[in-house]
Amino acid sequence: MTAYDDQNIFAKILRGEIPNVTVYEDDDTLCFMDIMPRTDGHCLVIPKTPCRNVLDASDAQLASVMSTVKKVANAAKTAFDADGITVQQFNETAGGQEVFHLHFHIHPRHDGVSMRPPGKMGDMEAIKAHAEKMRAAL
Ligand code: AMP
Question: How far apart are CA 108 and CA 73, in angstroms?
């Protein structure tokens, strides 16, 4: 398996080299807003320690990340009065992964509403407002 590259964008976020809109953090995990949101409230949960994805993550990394996924998913459901939550996770390029630091996407979903296409920068003021709603629900 390819080695972890500490120049990936999420490693830079963890080192404070580039900004993020934080929703939640604890000793082991960070949840921050996706800058190209496919749903209102689209956020990402990552471990604070390095691994590329599920394939090389330790059981401890997966356990802490999934605990935060559950916490934030429930907060997102409350904050957006969502009917459901989609959790997405991609492994390696063929699996759809673009940033090679383990992350889980959390999407609040509403009945009959599709996710937006990927790759479009979001409005930062809206993203910050969505993060605030989730922080309030946590
Ligand atoms: P993937 O690796 O396919 O799960 O996609 C990586 C995700 O990271 C995409 O949804 C991007 O919009 C998101 N992303 C990329 N750069 C940043 C960043 N600086 N801050 C927040 N999200 C980002």
Answer: 8
Domain span at 127 = 9-137
Distance (Å, rounded) from C-alpha 35 to C-alpha 33? 6
Q: CATH code at 78?
A: 3.30.428.10
- pTM for the whole structure: 0.98
Q: Are 10 and 103 in contact (CB under 8 A)?
A: yes
Q: What is the pLDDT of residue 11?
A: 98
**For residue 132, how many other CB atoms are within 10 A of its CB?**
13
Closest CA to 48 of 31, 69, 33, 36: 31
Q: Tell how far the Cα of 111 is from the centroid of ligand 1, in angstroms.
A: 25
41-90 residue pLDDT tens: 999 999 999 999 999 999 999 999 999 999 999 999 999 999 999 999 99
The total number of structural domains that make up the chain: 1
Residues within a 6 A CB radius of ligand 1: 9, 18, 20, 34-36, 90, 96-99, 103
